[in-house]
Amino acid sequence: MTHPAHRFSIAPMMDWTDRHCRVFHRQLTTRALLYTEMVTADAVIHGDRARLLGYSEVEHPIALQLGGSDPAKLAEAARIGAELGYDEINLNVGCPSDRVQEGRFGACLMSEPELVAACVAAMRAHQPVPVTVKCRIGIDDQDAEEDLRRFIDVVADAGCTRFVVHARKAWLKGLSPKENREVPPLDYERVYRLKAARPDLEIVINGGIETIEEARAHLDHVDGVMLGRAAYQNPAILADVDRLIFDADTESPTRAAALEAMLPYIEQHLKRGGRLSNVTRHVLGLYHGQPRGKTFRRHLSEGATSADATADVLREAIAIVERRADEARDSSRAA
């Protein structure tokens, strides 16, 4: 049975889905599963855990995504994540960057399903939190449908019951990470067939999904949908997730309400010595395509960067765009 939160999740994205981003996204959807940026097992074990793994209670349900290929290290990192209260531990077997390949983790691990299975087994053995895997539909010349099925079967035998599948193959040689998100063609049907072949597993689809309407259509074939760049670049679409994906009997939050809910969080962040831009860089796309949206973005981009910028910069940005929106509505009613 699919855990309710897995019907919709927001993808782990390096340099994007940090703790400030996740708190902002939580103002728009209370139900979606949120993911951290990928953190290597070594960083979890030896790094600054407060900085790398800290999160706010409002972020639940939240998953920690780990990178690595050493079963013992991953087991220790998973144990630490579970002790810190994460709701899920996810192993990255999908990132195609050169830096990740040099560390022998990410998408290159799809060629070593037995190693991934050993990692999953070790991670599951040392803590009680579910362990999941995020992968691609294939890599390089390992692109036959049976290759994906074999990978899933081997890793599932180690106890993984939930897979997030990016519906593009990854070219580990010849394409940049950005190109790997755009050039290889999407093959949603392959993911659908995987689910049909393994109905006992939870299959979450990822890749190229732009709207909540598209997400709902995918749910006719798989257990869950993961949104990536669309959720970050046009976050207002998340406001309909609880109502349209989870059938919640609630009104979708307005853009202004989501921003105003962030103000106490921002004030606390500033008191701890943080900068306003640490948070506001994640809200720049909220008025994408809306009247005065560019003015909103420009006001924040220019006003939030100084070291002494306060939450008033965001208050001013809200007033600018919402006042104009009010004027447009008044004009329309008058006409």
UniProtKB/TrEMBL annotation:
Family under the similarity heading: Belongs to the dus family.
Domain DUS-like FMN-binding: 10-316
Active site annotation, chain numbering: 95 (proton donor)
Highest rank taxon of the organism: Bacteria
Family annotation (NCBIfam families): PRK11815.1, yjbN
PANTHER family: FMN-LINKED OXIDOREDUCTASES SUPERFAMILY PROTEIN
Keyword list, A-Z: Flavoprotein, FMN, NADP, Nucleotide-binding, Oxidoreductase, RNA-binding, tRNA processing, tRNA-binding
Binding, FMN: 12-14, 65, 134, 166, 206-208, 228-229
Function recorded in the entry: Catalyzes the synthesis of 5,6-dihydrouridine (D), a modified base found in the D-loop of most tRNAs, via the reduction of the C5-C6 double bond in target uridines. Specifically modifies U20 and U20a in tRNAs.
Protein name in the entry: tRNA-dihydrouridine(20/20a) synthase
